[in-house]
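Sat 14:20. Reprocessing the chain from the morning session after the first attempt stalled halfway. Input below, unchanged.
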Amino acid sequence: MTSFYTLSELRALGLKRYGENVLISRKCSLYSAEKISIGDNVRIDDFCILSGNIVLGSYIHISAYSSLFAGNHNIIFEDFTTVSSRCAIYAESDDYSGESPTNPMLPEECRTTYGGNVILKPYVIIGSGCTILPNLTIGEGAAIGAMSLVTKDILDWGIYGGVPCRLLKKRSKKLLERFPQEIRQRF
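Finished this time. Tokens:
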């Protein structure tokens, strides 16, 4: 038996959509699977959590122990994005200001949350242990260093890191030349 769902098991998950060559670990947790769309050539490793309105493009890898919490917003991974292990991506979060309690077990009218879509553009890589907060876009080809806190939009083709995340230097586009011709033609 493989550690990934078989095609028939994948069908039974009730995903909104899934493409070809989708590998989802049997140890991954999917909440509101009917709101999750997955493209072609996607791998989701052990102990990941995906919850809510999530759209994964093609050629995506989400490493072990990473979590995507969309809430009432969207998390969108465009093609060729990679998330390393132990990352947390939030499209919605509790308000930590003290103006209202924080706890999902309280009635909704007691709590205050904030949020907005989180979008990862093509060729983004997120390093291990990063946290990405709601309502931002990580630009094409951006690389986020390990243990970073992303709190605002990230520009294209930069290497970023830190708490909070800041530009460290430009990132090379040479990686684009390394894609096989048949993949480049598709996109």
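The chain has one domain: 7-186.
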